[in-house]
Amino acid sequence: MFYLAEQFFSIQGEGKYAGVPSYFLRTAACNLSCPGFGARYEIDDEVRYGCDTYFAVDSRFAKAWTKIECASDLVERLKREFEQIGYLPHVVITGGEPILYYKDEVFYGVVEWLIASGIEITFETNGTILIDFDAYPAYASCIFSLSLKLSNSGEIKSKRLVPEVLRVIAERAKESFLKFTIDAKIIQDGALEEIQEIRDIIPDLQVYCMPVGESRDSIRKNDSAVFGFCMEHNFRYSDRLHIRIFDTTQGV
Ligand code: SF4
């Protein structure tokens, strides 16, 4: 059994596959909370701070999550949706943290069906949960977007950086790359050193940097600093197309 916060058809807005029409499965719950990203939201008259997908992280939103108890039910729904789309789109499994569910029978059943159907899967993960690729071999056929958190996430280093997890994914997955969410302040405060420490663990992976922000206004505050940072250090700039176009992180 696992929880979905939302599912929808859109275009990948970030990272290496930005611009690719993709069907999104956003699982609910995360093992981190990233208060440093400072996305302000209100629930039950209480002001809280978290990341741009707080609605898939904070269990106070659980009433809006859908419990998936049967793989074939979700597979049937996906078949209908793909038929309407008219082709088999790239599937992005994001969160929250989707790898929380990697051993779950229902979740793995859906992943196996997608792979057997020839569908490309990208996992958007914070890269902190060790995957047993021998016991769950379908994950070796997936792409991993390692959206690692730096100190600006507000998480302690021992929680957000687990070197063994990174080594195993880089070695076993068919493709993986690094994606960092940074702002003007962390660029001043040592983003390069933090990224370099991660690259020392997995030196061969491409690096994408994108601006912090849950709205057009907030990404606008950071985009030019991130743009310059990428030029200076030969990293790849990633915009956040869905926010730029729709001014939200939900349902697009
Ligand atoms: S790891 Fe990702 S989904 Fe989880 S709290 Fe941090 S930014 Fe949000």
Query: How large is the share of residues in beta strands?
Result: 15-25%
CATH superfamily: Aldolase class I
The percentage helix is 25-40%
CATH architecture: Alpha-Beta Barrel
Which H/E pattern describes the elements?
EEEEEHEHEEHHEHHEHEH
Q: Give me the number of helical elements.
A: 8
User: Which whole number gives the mean pLDDT?
Assistant: 95
Q: Into how many domains do the coordinates divide? A: 1
General form: globular
Question: How far apart lie the N and C ends?
Answer: 25 Å
Uncertain runs are: none
Q: Sheet with the most strands?
A: 9 strands, mixed
The fold-level CATH name is TIM Barrel
Could you say which structural class the secondary elements and strand pairing correspond to?
alpha/beta
Main sheet strand line-up: 5-1-2-6-7-8-9-10-11
Total beta-strand segments:
11
CA gyration radius, whole angstroms? 17 Å
The small-molecule ligands in this entry are: iron/sulfur cluster
